[in-house]
Amino acid sequence: MQKKKKQLVFVGLSGGVDSAVSATLLLKAGYDVVGVFIKTWHPDFLECNEEEERRDAMRVAAYLKIPFLTFDLENVYKKEVADYMIREYKAGRTPNPDVMCNKEVKFGAFLKKALSMGANFVATGHYASCTESAFSQSLGDEQSSTTPSKKHFLLRGIDPAKDQSYFLWTLNQKQLSKIIFPVGRLKKTEVRKLAKKFKLPVAEKHDSQGICFLGAVDLKEFLKHYIKEKKGKVLNEKGEEIGFHNGVVFHTLGERHGFVITKKNPNDGAYYVIGKDIKKNILIVSQKNKKYTFSQSLGDEQSSTTPSKKHISHFSINIHNTNWISEIPKPEKVYTAQIRYHGEFLPCEIKIKSKAKAEVIFKKPTLVASGQSCVIYDKDICLGGGVVI
Questions:
Q1: Distance of alpha carbon 380 from its chain centroid, rounded?
Q2: pLDDT of 188 above 60
Q3: Cβ contacts of residue 33 below 8 Å, gap of 6+?
Q4: Is 101 a catalytic residue?
Q5: What CATH number has the domain spanning 316-388?
Q6: pLDDT of 245-304, one tens digit each?
């Protein structure tokens, strides 16, 4: 790793292993490093371990002998992440709060504040990479360049089990020019080994789980504090009532838990949600999960309480709020799409409809929930994506 002219990097120290190793690697690459703990919002009714995480982050900073700051971004987090998630679920959609956390908090408010305080870059422990970043150059990356006119390409992390590029599709060229992902080209096992090698105080710490501000708390239990339960019917694909649920907005397409089937034969398999009628508070389920594709929740002008042939045979979805990071997808070229984190990479073609809208045409039917992020890849390059309409 070639030593570069000292530049200032603000590293988001979460109290975990990935960010601690990231800070260490930056120090060894010759950067001036400042550790920053980002204070976020947590609901009053949930036990919060934020102070414990902050103490771990402080211990890492003290061990590395780097300055430590705390950025209070609670208001931004509450408005742009938590309120957004609750609002989307109330509307019957399935949002992705981690995408909004990256967009509005980590690479929104945090990045802006760090740059205003003199930072040249910000860094996080995300498993992704950027070919034109300063850190890539320090690694001697053949694909990187010091030419400012070159594009910045967001790449998947090389560890498929940890890749987090799915959550980063909203980034743009200006942001990527100021972001470093130090562990993006490492596997998790390698990061753990480095943490032990560097004798970091969090080397043995377990990874955090769940939604960014909920941890391992059940999502439906959280939502019930903000959305009133309302009992409704569960119908099969023939329109026959076979059970009940406690609120259609608590469910998303493809899931098979949280509702009750009262008319079930001993030989019946699991039932999957294949449709939602928001206005009538009705769930439609089927045992044939792979057969159906729904680009949006039922309840619009064209929908009914029984799946139509259009919904069964239609292989495309529309996305809006699109963002294309390095290039706009070309017509008739085959890409891959991910419609949920760690989901299957699905072959598709992209038809651009406007600056903010596109159609994703799949090669095979798939269940896609309205409100979810659909992220497009050209091999290992994350091109961007949009929100399913």
A1: 17
A2: yes
A3: 8, 9, 11, 23, 26, 27, 64, 66
A4: yes
A5: 2.40.30.10
A6: 999 999 999 899 999 999 988 888 999 999 999 999 999 999 975 444 443 444 333 344
d(CA 296, CA 371): 9
130 is annotated as an active-site residue: no
Q: Which two tokens stand for residue 334?
A: 């085959």
Q: Is the pLDDT of residue 313 over 70?
A: no
Q: Is the pLDDT of residue 3 over 60?
A: no
Q: Which of 101, 130, 348, 382 is catalytic?
A: 101
The number of angstroms, rounded, from the C-alpha of 77 to the middle of its chain's C-alpha atoms is 15
Give 199-234 pLDDT, tens digit per residue: 999 999 998 766 666 666 688 889 999 999 999 999
CA angle 256, 382, 341 (to 5 degrees): 20
Residues of the chain with CATH 3.40.50.620: 8-197
- pLDDT, average across residues 176-186: 96
Q: What is the pTM of this model?
A: 0.88
Residues 98, 212: contact at Cβ < 8 Å? Answer: yes
Residues 37 and 56: their CA atoms lie apart, in Å, by: 10
- Assess contact for 325 and 384: CB atoms under 8 A: yes
Q: Which of 48, 130, 212, 374 is catalytic?
A: 212
Distance (Å, rounded) from C-alpha 337 to C-alpha 314? 16
Whole-angstrom distance, CA of residue 295 vs CA of residue 66: 49
Q: How far apart are the first and last CA of the chain?
A: 45
Using CA of residue 299, residue 304, residue 308, residue 312, what is the dihedral sign?
Answer: positive
State the average pLDDT over residues 169-189.
97
- Residues 234 and 241: beta-carbon distance below 8 Å: yes
Q: What per-residue confidence (pLDDT) applies to 365? A: 86
Fold of 228-312: SH3 type barrels. (2.30.30)
Answer whether 287's CB lies under 8 Å from 269's CB. yes
Question: What are the helix and strand counts (H, E) for the chain?
Answer: 11, 18
Homologous superfamily (CATH) of 8-197 is HUPs (3.40.50.620)
Query: How confident is the model over 101-138, as pLDDT tens digits?
Result: 999 999 999 999 999 999 999 999 999 999 865 455 45
